[in-house]
Amino acid sequence: MHAAIAKLRGLTQDGIENTQGEFGKLLSLSPLSVKLDEDPAPLERDEIVTLRSAQLRQEDIGKMVALISCTNGQYLLIGVVE
Fold first, then answer.
1. Judging by DSSP bridges, how do beta strands 48-50 and 75-80 pair with one another?
2. Cα 23 from Cα 4, distance rounded (Å)
3. Quick check: 8 pLDDT over 90?
4. φ, ψ for residue 72 (rounded to 5)?
5. Which of 18, 38, 52, 80 has CA 20 to 30 A from 3's CA?
6. Which is nearest to 76 in space by CA: 20, 29, 38, 25?
């Protein structure tokens, strides 16, 4: 039991240490698409997970959004940068 908890704790810490914040432009809501500042190819729907509290609206298209790059290759979209 302790070994399993220690393994989970290690994986969680590794994920936190290897994440980084990024910015991009919201291209569309349906399908969800974001173009990162440093990457010419837009992120597609299956590459992005959205926080429920992000509450993206149609008028947010074209605005800058904040994302977190995760170790599993996906991006967590936090919301629109004010």
1. parallel
2. 35
3. no
4. -85, 5
5. 18
6. 20
- Which tens digit of pLDDT belongs to each residue from 46-82? 899 888 888 899 999 999 999 988 878 889 898 999 8
Q: Which of 68, 26, 28 is nearest to 49 (CA)?
A: 68
Query: How far is the C-alpha of 17 from the C-alpha of 10, rounded, in Å?
Result: 11
DSSP-assigned letter for residue 43: B
Q: Where are the domains of the chain?
A: 19-80
Residue 74 CA to residue 19 CA, distance in Å, equals 11
CATH topology of domain 19-80: OB fold (Dihydrolipoamide Acetyltransferase, E2P) (2.40.50)
- For residue 10, pLDDT over 70 is answered with no
